[in-house]
């Protein structure tokens, strides 16, 4: 082989190694967050669904700090070691203090870990700080055996405390712990306390920490200096990818962790189970497909080879150049070559390097251009597939002149690439994000997870319907993005959440006043009445419910989510359709006859009206009873003349006749026969009259304080309170 340099093999290897460098350098799964703060999160650990191996390896990132999910307390992760199968985490400190009045407080610590983690007996020790203190570490190993250890520290006076920094038993002691503990607790013996040494050591502390981390200082015995300095201690956990040995691991199943082609299984030296490691000559993450990449030994001259180095997959060859010789160029240097030979090799190397650089540059340029063309074709295909050309023609012909077509890049920039911190709400079919456009407008972007052809028809339907609606109580559509597989809608930003959240969810801590509830009901009814009677052609919403009613600035009602809506032809009053909607709100006549009409919206609105006056969800349960239909329970209570038993207690006692009027209106809306239900315009007018009567009665019979409340409530000020309830305190920054 001397005298013949395999330059083509070398160039090909260099090209392949350069192309695969991105895969080799990555430690997390594709499209998963790889770091949290300064900590790298390597797979099998991961942040978010689909990014971790199995339960126990999921972690969270909060304020650039990483925390374990499956543990008894919130343990912060300091470091993760793939090769050694160890994780350094933060655990709590147990303390026991003697008070001057003779009493004492005892705070113990209990911790359990995920199924694949155990407390490292080699790396940790039980440490006790204090005088006249006996602390115990008790716990269970993977065999459910109860094991433990104890440590006693004694110092009769301050002068006897060891000041060398060691835990010698005088003021501080350390002891080894049992192996493979999956749960443990640290407690103090009640027979020993600090009462006799309270003057210089009122408190004792005990914890399990990495043995080389702690250095004792006598000042730790005084007051609360120790816990003022340390809120938690670093503890080492051993982890395994599987609890079987390598011989028992199911290598032909999807649960096997060592998925990289060039990886192998190794039995954990510290715990019961196995880990994964890259084979000799490879490096990377053995838990990822393609994670173990070839090591180029030839990149470290002199470390592996004293001659000419030729890298191979999983190894390398070493030989001397022409005119030189060596018995073993891996161990002994080749004989010096002549000046002319060096010049020839230098020219050859420069020539090959230039060729390799040109080849790589052309290859990368070609790959980038191909990727750009592929992305452009994909965007064009999605755009046409999602009806983009039809919408574009409608915009040009002014048939649709209120919406704008956004690009994918515009919406990614507006949401920081759809960062989780921008989420406004998440449902079964998708997520709504808060976005800021280039002109500083705040918008809400609806991004669905997946969409079949039927759902694409619903998307186009919702877009067309919203583009034709102009009403102050209906959410306004600003535009859409069609160059992605699942189209996205851009709405005006509604900052104060949904009606469901204010009645049943995260905003329900403060009660809504009766006047506020009547206003929300009236404005919602007016929006639906507009859809039924003023839109051309008339529109049936099809999914009226409290989660689809938003509260905007000054808490003006906004009806949203028209995915199930339908336009009614002028010569028809109803039509056949597949059943859509939400359980508890569905019109029983619609369920039976598969015919969606305006009266279907009236029935669903009747359920929303019940939510406003009862404070209950459409399907609810009381204590441990089975779930009930709110509509059925209400009608039964009304029939048995016990209306007050189902009303919200926060608004009881403010007008019996008023509740009777609202209840009778709801009863009409909930009629099983659609023809017996009122029109939505009649419902809106009736609510307007009820609210007007209520306000007149309130002004006539109220004192000056109540009049002040009414004036403030007309502005929907959430800080206003009164005798008959309080307006809800709302977070203006929360939006939908």
Number of discrete helical segments? 15
> Uncertain regions: pLDDT < 50 for 5+ in a row?
1-24, 570-577, 713-736
Fold-level CATH name of the domain at 494-736: Transferase(Phosphotransferase), domain 1
By CATH's scheme, which homologous superfamily of the domain at 494-736 applies?
Answer: Transferase(Phosphotransferase) domain 1
Q: Strand portion, in percent?
A: 15-25%
Structural class: alpha+beta
The largest pleated sheet is described as: 6 strands, mixed
Averaged pLDDT: 80
Strand order across the largest sheet:
25-29-30-28-27-26
Number of strands: 40
CATH C-level label of the domain at 494-736? Mainly Alpha
**Morphology call:** flat
Report helical residue fraction.
25-40%
**Rg calc:** 36 Å
**CATH architectural grouping of the domain at 494-736:** Orthogonal Bundle
Distance between the termini: 71 Å
